[in-house]
Amino acid sequence: MPRMLDVSDDVRAEIGDEEADRLLAGDNSPGSYDCTSCRTPGDSAQERTSTVLFIGDETAVLAFAHATCLPSQVVKVAEEQLQGAVRSITGDSGAAGAPPAAHSGVPAAAAQAAPAAPATAAAPAPGAQPQPAVLGVTSGLVLLEEELYPALVVEPTGPIARPGTTGGSDEFLALLSEQGFQPLGQVHEVPAALPGWSVLLAVGQLHAVLQPGNGGSPVAWWQAHQPLQVTDGWRTAASKLGKVLVFAAPVGTIGRQPREDLLRDALDKAAANGRLVAASMPLAGT
Predict the structure, then answer these.
(1) What DSSP element (H or E) covers 176?
(2) Whole-number Cα distances in Å, 185 to 105, 190, 194, 254
(3) Are 185 and 274 in contact (CB under 8 A)?
(4) Band (45; pLDDT cuts 50, 70, 90)
(5) The domain containing residue 219 runs over which residues?
(6) Residue 166 pLDDT > 70, yes or no?
(7) Residue 100 domain flag
């Protein structure tokens, strides 16, 4: 029976046309499955389903996800992590569980841990020459309009030049404004939604900030090298509201703040100084 499967060009290139066609025809694809993102049941005969190919150094695992949770994609993960998923599938009691659903799109640097509760990670930012700057991402809760909103604060470790230029000017805020991020004079209301962008939270962990791709499928603007833990309060607020606020500031503006009240103070000062942009993004996954 034919399946309602999405097989991206990247996945097709890895598994081959013959195997992709068999999947679409229903020969090698399950009817029911547990979504690799939200871990709830799905049915490829009844709803659009994405094929997600996890690739390690020696092992590859094809998984399935609700198309509303994840696009079809190829995800590179550590071989040890993938072996744990294989053990889980085959029933080995020492399994580490299914691989996290992340979106590959940009190379990633090592994750870094912030002091206290906020989670941080780093990934190379586009546009920096000759050495790519690193985007630091901190999670926290921000009180706006008497509601606690889950937020991500993005700050690079160095100036971000405009792609194709070699000048020393920092174009980070200008580039984001051109993408639709809203300049803030003060942090007092929910910023406007940014069409096509989303925040990927899978299995309760933060994976990526996605932006629209040329082919219609989202690609990673920022991606964690390893899934990042967020607090229970952050995850609860994200699930309740279905959106995440993403704030961005130039290097040296926010810094590493160990507490959410200090993070809010830094955001307020950045906004007052005209050094803060923001956008509201829907939550992808759970």
Answers:
(1) helix 172-179
(2) 32, 13, 18, 15
(3) yes
(4) confident
(5) 120-285
(6) no
(7) no
